[in-house]
Design a protein that fits this description.
- Helix content is 38%, strand content 13%.
- It is an alpha/beta fold and 279 residues long.
- The chain has a six-stranded parallel β-sheet with strand order 1-4-5-6-7-8. Strands 2-3 form a two-stranded antiparallel sheet.
- The protein starts with a helix and ends in a 7-residue tail after the last strand.
Length: 279
């Protein structure tokens, strides 16, 4: 099997020749050291943007024996970004504290062909790898941009503010999904963290009234196998996510979810990815 065949076979819940090895991201500073590419550039690792050329991505995949290449295009998150070691950026305090801050929430034009030029060239030269498109639906960007405490209070005191921020991100994601699903990618991935290790960050009722309708809007445009990522324990609304027709779930965080129990309950309908203890 080629890498692409192996990945797509597993995502169909069929048995490939071996377990595929895939990543959603590889830290740029780590890649610099592994590949001998020199010292990391300042602020080189931005998790909202694509950080590897197609040539670099293929070299790194070959070195690590990956079955996939990943291309990242996420809407900007409105937080104060804190420089860390080796050019890493970390999220700090949210910048969307009141409705007056909505005027600062400017996202790239999703109808601009230039936004997709690099992605199109990326897929055109993917070779035998499975090409994964990594993005967000927008709920995690909303939580980060507003800040956990402000977001939580606003859910009950100013729900319209939460809806306004989330809707802007979702509107953007819907247009992007329709465009990128025509570019030659093999897998579509949304990475919106929605849970702590013990439980989701909001109740299932909030998820069903606020978040699920936006995922449903996105589902109408996603024409590729869809993998949903969220750290933590998302079991209380995993059945809701299944209703979207998703293909896989990632990362089934070790210590937060029991992969054996998930396998028994969903393994014939859902491809399970991850469960590696990164700590």
């Amino acid at each position: 099997m080629t890498s692409r065949e192996r990945v797509l076979t597993a995502l169909r819940c069929e048995e490939p020749d071996r377990v595929p090895y895939c990543e959603l991201s590889v830290d740029r500073a780590l890649a610099q050291k592994l590949m001998g590419w020199g010292k990391p550039k300042s602020q080189a690792f931005n998790i909202e943007a694509n950080i590897y050329t197609i040539e670099e991505a293929k070299s790194l995949a070959s070195f690590l024996k990956l079955d996939n290449l990943f291309y990242v295009l996420r809407a900007p998150v409105y937080v104060h970004k804190i420089p860390g070691q080796d050019g890493r950026l970390f999220y700090g305090d949210g910048m969307l504290q009141t409705e007056a801050d909505l005027s600062t929430l400017q996202l790239p034009n999703p109808d601009d062909d230039a936004l997709y030029a690099e992605a199109e060239a990326f897929t055109r030269n993917k070779g035998e790898y499975a090409a994964w498109f990594i993005t967000r639906m927008g709920i995690f960007s909303t939580v980060l941009g507003m800040g956990f405490e402000n977001f939580s209070i606003a859910l009950y005191e100013n729900r319209d503010f939460v809806e306004a921020v989330l809707e802007r991100y979702c509107d953007w994601a819907v247009v992007v999904a329709e465009r990128v699903c025509q570019l030659g990618f093999d897998v579509y991935v949304t990475t919106d963290d929605m849970a702590f290790n013990t439980a989701p960050i909001f109740s299932p009722s909030i998820f069903r009234s606020l978040v699920l309708p936006r995922y449903q809007r996105l589902w109408e445009k996603v024409k590729l196998p869809w993998v949903i990522h969220s750290d933590g324990n998302i079991l209380p609304f995993l059945d809701d996510l299944m209703s979207l027709g998703i293909t896989g779930i990632h990362p089934i965080e070790n210590g937060a979810m029991d992969i054996r129990a998930i396998k028994k309950r969903y393994g014939d309908r859902l491809c399970l990815l991850g469960n590696v203890d990164l700590n």
